[in-house]
Amino acid sequence: MAAKKTYPLVKAAEAYARQVISGKIPACKWIKLACQRHLDEVKLSKAADFPYYFDPAKAERVAKFLQLLPHTKGKWASKRELIKLEGWQLFSVCIPFGWLRKKDDTRRYRTILIFVPRKNGKSIIGGGVGLYMFTADGEFGAEVYSGATTEKQAWEVFRPAKLMVDRTPELREHFGVEVNASNMCRLSDGSRFEPVIGKPGDGSSPSCAIVDEFHEHQDSTLFDTMETGMGAREQPVMLVITTAGSSIGGPCHQLVRDAERMLEGVIERPDLWAMLYTIDPGDDWTSEAVLIKANPNYGISINGDFLQARQRDAMQSAAKQATFRTKHLNEWVGAKSAWLNMLRWKEAPARKPLAELDGRPCYIGLDLASKIDIAGNLLLFPPVEGDPYWHLHGRYYLPEARVIEELDSNTARYREFDALGLLTLTDGEVIDFEVIKEDLREFAGRFDVQQVAYDPWQATQLAQEMQAEGLLMVEVRQTVQNISEPMKELEALVLQRKLAHGDCPVLTWMASNVVAKLDAKDNIYPNKERPENKIDGIVAAIMALSRAIAGKQEEGPDLSDHIVKHGIRTL
Q: Model's pTM, two decimal places?
């Protein structure tokens, strides 16, 4: 009788999962959900109607392969030691390779997201998995790419993989790997492994794409191009290994948010495997406990004393706090010198849909600073009896050419927003203001529009025409005197969790782009770090709030015969 096969590495991985669920290993909500999901689905897979099954031999094979590779840096490399995967690495990286589709026995998970703070052994994961997919996956003519936006970043994964092959002659000889200066190839079937900056070349058909530090990508162009090129492969893998970053409106944050919703069961993403190492809301970021929770390799590849020193620095310096919490606790903090607390932004109350706001008092802010780029039309509904929240809705306008043509670095982002139905595209090269006027007429018919705030730049004629149709148009020049107090008030509403913005991807992106310019009198003004970091929607919201504040403060003289030039009183 044949001996029953055992899978010690899979057993260790699942033991890790059980210890996480039991609380023996500190972990955040998302890691607990991921561990529970796997263990639950192993049981579900026995049912005939469950479309997937777990083959421990497949996962064990990947784990064994990775542990035959050498370390490439640090004390273990100096001793020429082989990699020994920790329980979290076995679970995070190897278990997804064991999940297959019942209908054709191909891999279930096509995207593997490892979201983990710096210095937690990402190069082992990226380089090792890349080598497995290049040599041992059984894919004829495999194409493995280490993709990034810069040459330096692309080599962060490729260099360790290349060193692993250089230091493992048995692997090189067994698989016939030829190591070149900037790529590796297998002449027997044409397989190759190479770094790629930007899009892969025409005709590329990735069987595996490794995207390192996805948070540094301004848009999803590289990710989308890799994913599209995988169409001809039976079971490709997109491996994303990243920390958090400062662009809360970028493609990386969106992928992480999708993973969170998937783990919560809100959306279906059966092909996405996600391990999100961070801390939980309400955790004390100054405690040692959060360091252990967010950093699974605490005390192994990342020294506890080092992390505690960085934590102390952050506690003593507000400037260092954002960097520490982003890089070592994996929290999304926002722009590098962000104005808004984006952690609080994410905790906003539920927003009422427009259909439930019909007839409510409303203030509108228009930022039409450019006819050739995105413009914002923001509706702000103040609290009423029984509803203590400020509800914020926006419409965003863009010339169609900005989406069709490769005009700037935001084109891919605009295409994503358009696909989500969040943009109103107008014909031609510039925004057609007639479309905005039609929306204003709609709003005037649906809501109790108190005032429409606008900046005279580009908008004077539109304001005159809408004033003639009965809307009270109020000029709010974008000066420090007019903007500072409502900007501070908007920040307060976010911190108090009273601004219901609906987690709109467009407005969230813009909110994360705003930096506060401070003068000697403690006045603030919205600014941006780069021209492509659009903030129009937030500026329009500030303008609308300025009029709501003024509306509370003044009786309101009869302004119906004039376009009013009005500043904002100090609160």
A: 0.69
Using CA atoms, how far residue 319 sits from 285, 324, 492, 494, in Å, is 15, 10, 21, 21
Of 558, 31, 544, 527, the C-alpha closest to 273 is: 31
Average pLDDT (261-285) is: 91
Mean pLDDT of 277-292: 93
What is the architecture, at CATH level 2, of domain 8-276?
3-Layer(aba) Sandwich (3.40)
What is the DSSP-derived secondary structure letter of residue 331? -
pLDDT of residue 565: 38
Distance separating alpha carbons of residues 533 and 529, to the nearest angstrom: 7
For residue 453, pLDDT beyond 50: yes
Q: Which two tokens stand for residue 120?
A: 């937690």
pLDDT of 336 higher than 70: no
Calpha distance 335→515 (Å, rounded): 7
Transcribe 167-194 into DSSP letters.
Answer: T-HHHHHHHTEEE-SS-EEETTTTEEEE
Q: Does domain 345-565 have CATH number 3.30.420.240?
A: yes
Which residues is 191 bridged to in the sheet? Answer: 186
Instruction: Evaluate if residue 318 carries a pLDDT over 70.
Output: no
Contacts of 9 (CB under 8 A, 6+ apart): 59, 60, 63, 64, 67, 85, 90, 94
Which residues, 6 or more positions from 385, have their beta carbon under 8 angstroms from its beta carbon? Answer: none
CATH 3.30.420.240 domain range(s) in the chain: 345-565
Instruction: Write out pLDDT tens, residues 72-94.
Output: 877 777 778 899 999 999 999 99
Mean local confidence (pLDDT), 168-187? 93
Domain with CATH 3.40.50.300 in the chain: 8-276
> Residue 240: CB partners within 8 Å, gap ≥ 6?
111, 112, 113, 114, 211, 214, 223, 252, 255
